[in-house]
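Case study B.
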Amino acid sequence: MDNDDTAIYPVLPAGFGRFFRDISMRVTELSDDDRLWVKERTELLFGGDFVVSRSEVHDPHKLPGFIATEGRERVGLITYHLVDDVCEIVTIDALCQFMGVGTMLLEKVESVARAAGCTKLWTITTNDRLDAQRFFQKRGFVISEVRLGAMTKIRLLKPNVPKVGDYGIPVRDELEFEKPLLPLE
Ligand SMILES: CC(C)(COP(=O)(O)OP(=O)(O)OC[C@H]1O[C@@H](n2cnc3c(N)ncnc32)[C@H](O)[C@@H]1OP(=O)(O)O)[C@@H](O)C(=O)NCCC(=O)NCCS
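Model:
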């Protein structure tokens, strides 16, 4: 990343590329034009066009959410579900990782949730998704529940969920993360 900076802007400090990316990336509300793409991404990432959270089935392509774009390219998406004063992040998906896409999308949903009076954000991921586990924990989430072997039950509904996931790790368990939304200083 910083090597690129040096190549293009030899006298500018390291990290300039990140600053440039921050100002060139846009986050906009998910529109009807995006819904088919959201459905395709859900199929690709979650082994079906729906997700099961606790015992509820969600169609991410029908939920509210945000899309991140870089120029004309879609580079990420987040979908959420608000119930009373709690906001579930149903899916989050960065097409190019470690470039700030996930953070921008998460911050957007957090601000929507706060504006709606929510006191908590929560989400579910699986044991193999180490990048997501790192991502959420470094952004104020804690592990609130672990369901060992939960993916066996999920596969009855979603037979296409892969047996082996990120980093070659067997996909077995669900982890729930939550973040209390404390009043901002
Ligand atoms: C989880 C996920 C959404 C995170 O998205 P992301 O875009 O990679 O996240 P970010 O880039 O904002 O942050 C990740 C790291 O990259 C770093 N980063 C951000 N911009 C950067 C840049 N320009 N250069 C180098 N590093 C950068 C961040 O500091 C962060 O590091 P940290 O966690 O140590 O603080 C992404 O890994 C993903 O899509 N995973 C697959 C789907 C998934 O597991 N979803 C969760 C279950 S629903």
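The chain is about 30% helix and 30% strand. The remaining cases will be described in the next quarterly update.
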